[in-house]
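FAQ: What does the model actually see?

It sees only this:
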Amino acid sequence: MNMDPEIKPITLQMPFRMGSVNCYLIQSDSGYLLIDSGASFSRKDLLRELEGAGCQASLLKLIVLTHGDFDHTGNAATLRRAFGAKIAMHRDDAGMAQMGDMFVNRKQPNVIIRKMIPFFIGFRKAERFTPDVLLEDGDDLSPYGFDARVFSIPGHSKGSLGVLTAAGDLFCGDLLVNTDKPALNTLIDDLPAAEASLQKLRGLGVGTVYPGHGTSFPMHVISGESD
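And it is asked to produce this:
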């Protein structure tokens, strides 16, 4: 009998008191899947959390990155080397990881912001990588032992992905946040796309939302079903 997937949230601090970011370790009877990997600044903490959960080399099957920002991809290359896991993400954000530039395929910010953000978050050449798997809307993760599907939810970035389990748990990256209250992220690259993605999620039978920043919450509180 297959075990119900177990979700372990891993909250990692970011440098310079910039807040925290969530990774999610999902255990099934076939191994582990990690959603997002935190920033390189918090690598020791992440490795300690994985070890404490019993996630050892060869047991980590896949690292799914919800988007290409440094605070979500910063440890993926290290984990691939250490655990042998494949890295999966959407092709529209792959250039961020390959070039070490979170503004690839995004609207360009002013020069000062563009230069400051890599300094604060950090993404050296050692952290750059080419993903092993390019995910698309509707892709099934069952070949990796997880009863879940991937959905394209652009807005925060063009290649933003959500992972939706058969039980209705949604891992949404940075499209939605809950640092103050459940809401659409204020850091949006394309607002019409983000609003369309939110509308799409409303029709997918989402129960609980696990955001990249903040605590989990029921989908209905952000969809207008309960105010």
